[in-house]
Design a protein that fits this description.
The complex is a heterodimer of chains A (about 290) and B (about 450). Chain A has a domain at about 50-250: Up-down Bundle (f41 fragment of flagellin, N-terminal domain), CATH 1.20.1330.10. Chain A is built from seven helices and six strands; from the N terminus they run αααββββββαααα. In chain A, the strands form three sheets. Chain A has a two-stranded antiparallel ribbon with strand order 1-2. A two-stranded antiparallel sheet of chain A has the order 3-4. A two-stranded antiparallel sheet of chain A has the order 5-6. Helices cover about 70% and strands about 5% of the residues of chain A. With about 290 residues, chain A is mostly helical. The longest helix of chain A is centred in the first third of the chain and has 56 residues, at about 45-100. With about 450 residues, chain B is an alpha+beta fold. Chain B folds into two domains: about 5-65 and about 435-445, no CATH class; about 70-400, no CATH class. Helix content of chain B is about 60%, strand content about 10%. Chain B contains ten helices and eight strands. A four-stranded antiparallel β-sheet of chain B has the order 3-4-5-6. In chain B, a hairpin with a 2-residue loop joins strand 5 (about 225-230) and strand 6. The chains are: A mainly alpha (about 290), B alpha+beta (about 450). At the A-B interface, helix 1, helix 2 and strand 5 of A face helix 3, helix 8, helix 9 and helix 10 of B.
Chain lengths: ~290, ~450
């Protein structure tokens, strides 16, 4: 084959350009630490990374939802525990008052004490968390959920549940609507006891001890429901966190650059580049002209 | 044989070698001229001895070329022009979508859904509603931006198309006039010039070339003749607009039939302009329309804190990416965003969750909104990748063919130097012959 000047120049320039291009690709990979920056780098990998990242972000949202729900449940639990405490105290009062040695005056004083307790418990049931009524169903910012007129405790909220998204296709109910509190008969049995105290009716007082006992148990069962909810959240949280860690390593495998490989390759290409330059300066000077007089 | 014949022969030799040196000079001078084909003086021994005056005679200056390689090269040039241009334009399209930067639509849609999730955690919050509104505005703005970027790109491509077409027409005119001149005068320089122009033309459009033995050439494009012996016809274009997007069509000056230009850089531009961009926009429109309708559908069931339902979240009757907007009701007062299934329960997040769930609904051809957009992006990515790959390999093919052509037609400096010495020596030898003949005649005359 005849080799002409234009071929020599073209080929040398083409080699140099190729090496330059490889060097630049490696260089930007090393500098950015990423192998995938646009879809055209590798459409299949790119769409995988996009999916993984979406899943990761969604998991982060679920984790955030759980954190948020945990706060709500913690404050609900604290109040339920307080209410249980109150119901035990009330039982003490009832037992004390049931003693035959008590007279009407003493019982009236105890009734007074009990009334204050009821007011305090209604106050507890009206607690707000972040400006929202905890025990109002979904009517979190409408009227005060529980009102007490001295004769009866009325519930003004609804019995709807509030849900939080804890994972893909997994909603968890986080609230105890006030109606469930009403259904424990706690307020009713307290009011019955107070009325019995005011009436100085020893039999009624003794009967109300059992009722209070039942109500206290009902409250307790709400508490254990909350407890299992907390466990559930904890489990889901762990699962989401470990899934995110896995996703992280998948994403990193796909889009992060293997630095050792990239740097080695870069060095190799640098040598090729230098060799090419050397060859060019040598080859271009070669000509028959140099040897003619 | 008369001694004077020696004078004739040497004189002929002198002239021939002088002309050979002249050709060598021309070759050296044009070593870097694009399209130049090296020349050679053909010297032949005359067979018949009838004309003793010329033992040697000079042929035409012949251009050394291989038609097969030349035609292959043009074909591959056409492909290179096509791939290079599509790579450039598709790269532009990819950067319009802007994935995977934070400004990418996929990311922004994700943010939009996340805002609904946060609102579901906190349906009473005015702030969360404002965030939902802000993210929605950001998302619709991005849709609008992509749409107008595509229109700007088309405008740019339109300029490019016009420029290329006037380049094509100029080339057609030049080749046409060279064609005419060549029918009268077959000079090597003119042939070189015409070849170079045809090379250029083949980078722009997909032409068929037919070369005849009398050096005339016919060039046609999708079956219609552009240039023939005494005829050349320019391209005439028409632009039609539908939905603000342009569609270019071309026909020859004296014809009506639209030309099917799909090669060369003009072909690549036409494909992106007439086919790719409208297709991408169509998909983007589908995405915007589906999202607007579905979100509105769910949102209008819900009640806001004013106890109102049937509120549109996005403007109703969204036609596509261009008019995708958050409704003015929501823009003016984000508290109008509905979260609850029933009126008067501000803690109810059913609707907010339902809207959050729209992202998982398979709304377009069995794909979720995000998957649909994702496949659009990976489609663009594959096209860019393909164009890049093709450009790279095509560059190698063209280089290889150029080498092949240069191996035949290119000028080699070493060869020319050697030839120079060869002809120089021959020239000197011929001079010596004249000197010898002169001496011989003198000797003869002395005898007399």
């Amino acid at each position: 084959m005849r080799i002409t000047q234009s071929m020599i120049t073209r080929n040398l320039l083409s080699y140099i350009n190729d090496t330059r291009e490889n060097m630049s690709t490696n260089q930007s990979a090393i500098a950015s630490g990423k192998e995938l920056t646009t879809s055209s780098d590798d459409p299949v990998k790119f769409s995988m990374v996009t999916r993984f990242k979406e899943a990761q972000k969604r998991n982060e949202q679920y984790l955030n939802n759980i954190l948020n729900a945990q706060g709500w449940i913690e404050s609900t639990t604290a109040i339920i525990e307080d209410l249980y405490e109150y119901s035990l105290n009330a039982k003490d009062v009832a037992q004390q008052a049931a003693d035959s040695s008590q007279n009407a005056d003493n019982r009236a004083i105890l009734a007074q004490k009990l009334n204050t307790m009821i007011q305090e418990m209604v106050g507890l049931a009206n607690t707000q968390y972040l400006g929202k009524y905890i025990f109002a169903g979904t009517q979190t910012q409408e009227e005060v959920p529980f009102s007490y007129d001295g004769n009866a405790v009325t519930y003004n909220g609804n019995s709807d549940y509030i849900k939080r998204r804890a994972a893909e296709n997994f909603d968890v109910t986080i609230n105890i609507p006030g109606s469930e509190l009403t259904n424990t008969d706690l307020f009713d049995s307290l009011i019955t006891l107070r009325n019995a105290l005011l009436d100085n009716d020893q039999t009624a007082i003794s009967q109300s001890i059992d009722e209070l006992e039942k109500s206290a148990n009902n409250i307790m069962s709400i508490n254990s429901k909350l407890g299992s909810l907390k466990n559930q959240f904890e489990l889901t949280k762990n699962r989401l966190e470990s899934s995110n860690m896995k996703l992280n390593s998948f994403i990193s495998d796909l889009e992060d650059v293997d630095l050792t490989r990239a740097i080695t390759q870069y060095n190799a290409e640098e040598i090729v580049y230098q060799a090419a330059l050397q060859t060019i300066s040598d080859t271009l000077n070669l000509s028959l002209l140099n040897f003619l007089d | 044989m008369a001694i004077t014949t020696i004078f004739d022969i040497s004189q002929q030799a002198l002239l021939n070698n002088q002309s050979a040196i002249d050709t060598t000079a021309k070759n050296i001078a044009n070593i870097n001229t694009e399209g130049y084909k090296r020349r050679r003086v053909e010297m032949t021994n005359t067979t018949g001895l009838s004309n003793v005056n010329s033992y040697l005679e000079r042929d035409d200056l012949s251009r050394i070329r291989n038609i097969f390689v030349d035609n292959r090269l043009r074909m591959e040039h056409e492909n290179l022009g096509k791939y290079e241009t599509s790579q450039m334009v598709l790269n532009n399209i990819e950067s319009i979508f802007g994935e995977p930067l934070d400004s990418g639509l996929q990311n922004i849609m994700m943010e939009f859904w996340k805002a609904w999730n946060d609102l579901a955690n906190n349906p009473e919050s005015q702030t969360a509603k404002t965030v939902v509104k802000d993210k929605a505005v950001m998302m619709t703005n991005t849709f609008n931006r992509i749409h107008s970027d595509f229109r700007n790109l088309q405008e740019q491509i339109g300029f490019d198309i016009n420029e290329k077409v006037s380049e094509v027409n100029q080339l057609i005119e030049q080749i046409g006039s060279l064609n005419q001149r060549l029918s009268a005068d077959s000079s090597a320089d003119l042939l070189d010039q015409r070849d170079a122009l045809i090379d250029k033309l083949s980078e722009l459009i997909d032409i068929d070339i037919r070369e005849y033995s009398n050096r005339e050439i016919t060039i046609s494009l999708s079956g219609q003749i552009l240039i023939s012996q005494n005829y050349s016809s320019k391209l005439v274009g028409t632009v039609n607009y539908s939905n603000n997007f342009s569609f270019y069509e071309f026909h020859v000056e004296n014809g009506e039939t639209p030309l099917d230009i799909d090669g060369g850089s003009l072909g690549a531009l036409l494909k992106v302009n007439n086919q790719d961009i409208p297709e991408y926009i169509e998909q983007l429109n589908t995405l915007a329309k589906t999202m607007a309708n579905r979100v509105n559908q769910v949102h209008s069931i819900g009640y806001n804190i004013y106890g109102k339902n049937k509120v549109n979240f996005f403007e109703s009757n969204v036609q596509g990416a261009a008019d995708f907007r958050v409704s003015s009701d929501i823009l003016n007062d984000p508290s109008r965003i509905a979260t609850a299934q029933s009126s008067g329960s501000s803690g109810d997040n059913t609707i907010a969750l339902a809207i959050y769930d729209i992202q998982n609904e398979k709304l377009i051809n069995g794909a979720t909104l995000s998957d649909f957009y994702g496949s659009l992006i990976s489609n663009v990515g594959s096209q860019v990748r393909e164009a890049t790959f093709l450009t790279e390999s095509q560059t190698k093919i063209v280089e290889n063919l150029q080498n092949q052509r240069d191996a035949i037609s290119g000028v080699s400096l070493d060869e020319e130097m050697a030839a120079l010495i060869q002809y120089e020596n021959a020239y000197m030898a011929a001079s010596r012959l004249i000197q010898a003949a002169d001496t011989m005649i003198k000797a003869l005359l002395d005898v007399v």
